[in-house]
Amino acid sequence: METFSKKEKEKLRQKKRKDKQEKKEDRKANAQKGQSLDQMLAYVDENGNISTTPPDPRRIRSVNEASIQIGVPRQSDVPAEVLVRNGVVTFFNASKGYGFIKDLQTQESIFVHVNALTEPLNEQDKVTFSTTQTPKGPNAVDVKKI
User: Fold this and answer.
1) How many Cα atoms sit within 13 Å of 13 on the Cβ side?
2) Please, which pLDDT band fits residue 70 given cuts at 50, 70 and 90?
3) Is 0.90 topped by the overall pTM?
4) Region Disordered: which residues (predicted)?
């Protein structure tokens, strides 16, 4: 005994099967077999775009392979005198043990922790310091009052 829903599902299956067969026949009829190699090739122009026309040989630029830089360039060694900076303490919370120093040369705000201090600091103190790079940014170390 077939119910209405079973009949409807079977009709849908038959329709899908018929549509699939028609698409298959259409693909076979419109297939472009035997294309020449020139029709199948794609070229990259001087801007990196894919095109069907070969690049103009007059526009080809030569690149010196040694000038291509892969990765991050190595930092040159900086003399020790340059590493010592001058700054002013803009904020310092002694109870929490951290603060910020404003570098007088670059106007950059640099984090300072109480462990990097040689003596206690107050706001507006002039200091000398060195910096180290951390994942969160530069940190002041060897902080001394002037």
Assistant:
1) 6
2) confident
3) no
4) 1-41
> Region 62-72: what's the mean pLDDT?
84
**SS (HEC) of the chain:** CCCHHHHHHHHHHHHHHHHHHHHHHHHHHHCCCCCCHHHHCCEECCCCCEECCCCCHHHCCCCCHHHCCCCCCCCCCCCHHHHCEEEEEEEEECCCCEEEEEECCCCCEEEEEHHHECCCCCCCCEEEEEEEEECCEEEEEEEEEC
Question: Two tokens at 17?
Answer: 């099967």
Distance of CA 85 to the CA centre of its chain: 31
Name the pairing type of β-strands 137-145 and 109-113: parallel
User: Which of these, 73, 94, 80, 95, lies nearest to 131 by C-alpha position?
Assistant: 80
Domains of the chain and any CATH numbers: 80-145 (2.40.50.140)
- CA–CA distance, 31 with 40 (Å, rounded to integer): 14
